[in-house]
């Protein structure tokens, strides 16, 4: 999926075009991109965004993944290569794994806010739930149905309704996340998802066999 050149403006256009609708029966979160049109002109403090990390802090190999919750290739990575990567390298202390969200659309922002709502301790567990059921919630219907499907995932993860709604309606946090994503993508030259930074070098999505060979080369084995 490659839409980085116009994604920020596209997000604003989606909001302006009426994508953020609500119904009396199933209200959507407040527009998390409120004020996004001015985000590039207004300085936003992104230092409050927590990096989601797995593995040993001092692991010899650091892998940063850039991914979108609405990207099918990202879901495929998390259902396959990621599980092997975690077993062979993250859980064994050889790889420090950092997950960074990319936002293509409103549902991707909502999914991110629900995953982060659970806190760093539960983040990767919710991450797994979101990706494993992507084909269901992402195709649930219109905005209301998608938001409700994501709420259901949050409840499965143990979040109560009040906590979920508070997270989903936090427009300030959503705007900060969008600004954070912009900073990361521009700094690291991210142009597609999933993309990876392995010990400072950008690499594209690839098979687990290729990932394993790359990691082992970094480890000197």
UniProtKB/TrEMBL annotation:
User: Which Gene3D superfamilies does this entry report, sorted A to Z?
Assistant: Glutaredoxin
| Pfam families linked to this entry | Thioredoxin_4
What is the gene called?
Answer: bdbD_2
Q: What is this protein called?
A: Disulfide bond formation protein D
Kindly list the organism's lineage: Bacteria, Pseudomonadati, Pseudomonadota, Alphaproteobacteria, Rhodobacterales
Entry-linked SUPFAM superfamilies: Thioredoxin-like
Residue intervals passing through the bilayer: none
* Residue span, Thioredoxin domain: 22-220
Under the heading InterPro entries, the entry gives: Thioredoxin-like_fold, Thioredoxin-like_sf, Thioredoxin_domain
Functionally, this protein is described as follows: May be required for disulfide bond formation in some proteins.
Species in which this protein is naturally found: Falsiruegeria litorea R37
- Membership in a protein family: Belongs to the thioredoxin family. DsbA subfamily.
